[in-house]
Amino acid sequence: MQRIKTIHFKKISSTQKIIRYFLNFSPVVVVADEQTKGMGRLGRSWFSPKGGLWFSFAFKFKNIKNILPFLVPLTIIETLKKFANLEYRILIPNDIYVKNKKLSGILIEKTKDDYFIIGIGINTNNTSFPDNLKEQAISLKNLTGNNYDNQKILKTFLGIFFSKISKSEERNFIKKFNNYVIKDKLKITLKNREKLVCNIKEIKPNLRIITKNGLEININTIEKIRLL
Ligand code: BTN
Question: Could you point out which of 12, 20, 98, 143 has its C-alpha 20 to 30 Å from the C-alpha of 216?
């Protein structure tokens, strides 16, 4: 595995922001015990108390833009399976769910000078959530009662990720990704405010969603997706 510089903070605003000061060291990982302004997708905030695993990593790699949305969630699942044998599922675009609750979220960004910055939040040892998240979020410790070594999880994740990316095979990733996707009874709100309930038949390259009744939905037109 190539050497990756790791920078650890006890408490910072967001690993996703702070990593931008360290891009020259890339590949680099910034990890924090706690984030005060954790960032989620679509401008949302991400609850990041002590106990969870919050990290961002940055790197340059050619021609991988299309595989990242598949590769990152698959790598998280493969990693977590080594620590806790649970039924991991993917809620598109790339949230990791167990028992219909969100365990992990992913934020993929690209800088002007072609660095990918991938931010990952995994609820590992944190056990309580604010009222607005209680119904939707869960941690490994909630699920199993065990404590997890965040450093080990991070190291395992990076090992798997960088070995997979160097021998990437897009179609293979998409097939595996499809096996984990939650396909039934999804409530989708489109950016134009239209709402629809659908069952997914298949996810195609570029995260195009094909529904069981033949609709094709582009992921970029979606505002939010919920389980019914
Ligand atoms: C989402 O599901 O909305 C994406 C959540 C991504 C959260 C991680 S935690 C580490 C990194 N730093 C951040 O501020 N966000 C990402």
Answer: 98
One DSSP character per residue, 189-206 reads EETTS-EEEE-EEEEEGG
Question: Which backbone phi and psi does 97 adopt, to 5 degrees?
Answer: -115, 150
Query: What is the per-residue pLDDT across 62-121, written as a single tens digit (0 to 9) for each?
Result: 877 788 999 999 999 999 999 999 999 999 999 999 999 999 999 999 999 999 999 999
Rg (CA), the chain: 17
Q: How far is the CA of 24 from the centre of ligand 1 (A)?
A: 22
Ligand 1 atom with least separation from CA of 35:
14
Q: Among 29, 28, 46, which residue's Cα sits nearest to residue 37?
A: 46
Confirm or reject: Cβ of 39 under 6 Å from ligand 1: yes
| Range list of H helices, 27-139 | 68-81, 131-134
